[in-house]
Design goal:
Helices cover 38% and strands 18% of the residues. The protein is an alpha/beta fold. The mean pLDDT is 90. Pfam families: DUF1731, Epimerase.
Length: 304
């Protein structure tokens, strides 16, 4: 049996593909889940964050821990109650894990936590951000700041910790791309808002390989911008999606005010501009991207 990787949020977009890659490499994969499920080749342990419960055997003999769990930021209006859930699902879960690791004296080789490129702000215009840039001061920035601060509780236990501030993930299995592609498939593809807002993206396979690299390579520590090297505008992304699908882009831009009427504050997710640079990944690691060109990345995504 290979080394054990325990994943929270394993049934999500990134978790599923990451699991496939880890199993192929010979790792033993286990999940922490809110409910028992039968998943081929994966041991599923139950946990209840509100009750502070983790099933016995979950964290024991774990070599690596990958934290992907967190309520979706684009799955409902940002009511005050929803905001609390978005934060607590990320922060309280890490705090519970840290508590159990300390209680059971688990010697992890590494802890890798998801975060978001929104760390720098929901809408930062044309300003370019590296890992050294300061955090923003809006809701999504606050989410990522407290998320990363919670990860420090595991770092303080002597565990090497890396944080991946992720941009838009290119995949047809979930995330933003299927939502953008749906109208395009019917010939209604259109940029959102001005269309000039910057989008920092990464192919799903590159992101999962980055998790594995960060997990096993001792040189990875602290925050990294998990994005490809070439941010594009919303307009360009929409154009490339339409081109890849062989559909015209003839609809006018969807007005910002219309999106805000429908989604409220949550519209910031699609209207915000984030030009994020993967400085630490390219300068400090030996990680090699498989997809650096948006057109080729989308062709791979839609042809799978």
């Amino acid at each position: 049996m290979g080394q054990k990787v325990l994943i929270t949020g394993g049934t999500g977009l990134v978790g599923k593909r990451l699991t496939e890659m880890l199993l192929k490499k010979g790792y033993e994969v286990a999940y922490l889940s809110r409910k028992k499920e039968n998943i081929p080749s994966v041991k599923v342990y139950e946990w209840n964050i509100d009750k502070g419960y983790i099933e016995d055997g979950a964290v024991e003999n774990t070599d690596y821990l990958i934290h992907l769990a967190g309520a979706g930021v684009a799955e409902g209006r940002w009511t005050e109650e929803r905001k609390k859930i978005i934060i607590s699902s990320r922060v309280d879960s890490i705090n519970l894990i840290a508590k159990k690791i300390k209680e059971k004296n688990i010697k992890l080789q590494s802890f890798i936590s998801a975060s978001g490129s929104s760390y720098y702000g929901e809408d930062t215009g044309d300003k370019q951000h590296t890992e050294e840039s300061p955090a923003g001061n809006d809701f999504l920035s606050h989410v990522t700041v407290v998320w990363e601060k919670a990860a420090d509780s595991i770092t303080k236990l002597g565990v090497r910790t890396a944080i991946l501030r992720t941009g838009i993930v290119l995949s047809t299995e979930g995330g933003a791309i299927p939502k953008m592609a749906l109208p395009a498939k019917f010939g209604f593809g259109a940029p959102l808002g001005s269309g000039k807002q910057w989008i920092s993206w990464i192919h799903l396979d590159d992101l999962c390989n980055m998790y594995i690299n960060a997990m096993t390579n001792n040189s990875w520590h602290g925050p990294y911008n998990a994005v490809a090297s070439g941010p594009v505008t919303n307009e360009e992304l929409t154009r490339q999606i339409c081109k890849t699908l062989g559909r015209p882009q003839w609809m006018p831009n969807v007005p910002s005010f219309a999106l805000r009427l429908v989604f409220g504050e949550m519209a910031n997710v699609v209207l915000g501009s984030n030009f994020v640079i993967n400085k630490r990944v390219t300068a400090e690691t030996d990680f090699k991207y498989q997809f650096t060109d948006l057109e080729k990345a989308l062709e791979d995504v839609f042809n799978k």
